[in-house]
Amino acid sequence: MGIETLELLFAVALCAGVIDGMAGGGGLITLPALLMAGLTPAQAIATNKIQALFSVGSAATRFAWVGAVNFRLIWKKALASIVGAAIGACLVQILSSQFLSRLAPILLIVVALLFLFSRQFAPEAGRRRISETAFALGAALPIGFYDGFFGPGTGSIYPAALVFLLGRSLEVATAETKILNTVGSAIAAAIFLSGGAIVWQPALAMVIGAVLGGQIGAHIVLRWGAPLIRVALVVVSVVLAVRLF
Predict the structure, then answer these.
(1) For a disulfide at 46, which of 5, 146, 179, 197, Cβ 3.0-4.6 Å?
(2) What are phi and psi of 68, to 5 degrees?
(3) How far apart are CA 53 and CA 181, in angstroms?
């Protein structure tokens, strides 16, 4: 892979890291970039998971450092996310490349559309509809499965679920999302690593950009809060949906 391609992937991962740190959805940029760079769908999903891990992990570290996450409340959801992501990552390695080649663009478009339109229906924080355990089994487990199987948009699906089902504020939901996204990405990356599906040159180039971008995005959220998150979600949704179409 040429140096220009690696430099471009670094820049893409930097931008995606900022988006992930703020609002989620960075994978909708990085996964198509890896596919356009010539990776197979299975390789692109596995390689993207490495950069996604460092992107959300960078943001999660920042949120945890400033005490924005209550770890007593999140451990059940984290465990469910790990189990779901492990199942999803194992399934990706079983399915054929031809099937994934047909499925990947469809999933990208569906997630982009959900990402675009679901936010306008998001309720305000404050009303809890289910328990933490019910959320872990009914939301974190399937979202974790999607994270391990495909990934892009997970950082946007989690906060919507946390706000709607558990009554979290958008700031708290964003912080918890980074933890759940990180643990799911970590187990999926470990499974992809054992399966040999990761292409390391683009993965390492994107990791550097993802870490820097994740720190920038988390800093922006902590400084300017929910109003900017909402603006970022709308802008990113429109841009990504247009790009995919």
Answers:
(1) 197
(2) -85, 0
(3) 8
pLDDT score, position 140 = 95
Residue 198 sits at φ, ψ, to 5 deg, of -85, 135
* Cα atoms in the 13 Å half-sphere on the side-chain side of 153: 23
Specify the amino acid at residue 184: G
Give the pLDDT score at 112.
62
- In 66-140, which residue ranges form alpha helices assigned H by DSSP? 71-94, 97-117, 132-135
Residue type at 51 in one-letter notation: Q
- Domain containing 177: what range? 3-244
Helices marked H in 119-225 — which ranges?
132-135, 141-149, 154-166, 170-195, 200-224
* pLDDT reported for residue 133: 94
The gap between the terminal CA atoms of the chain, to the nearest Å, is 27
Q: What is the DSSP letter of 119?
A: G
pLDDT of residue 10: 94
For the chain, 245 residues long, the average pLDDT of each consecutive 10-residue run is 89 84 74 87 89 81 82 92 95 80 69 59 66 94 91 80 86 87 93 89 92 81 63 57 54
Check residue 245 and give its pLDDT: 52
Nearest to 25 by CA among 152, 198, 187: 152
Q: Choose among 166, 175, 83: nearest CA to 131.
A: 166
CA dist., res. 97 & res. 239, Å (int): 28
- CB of 139 closer than 8 Å to CB of 81: no
Q: What is the pTM of this model?
A: 0.77
The number of domains in the chain is 1
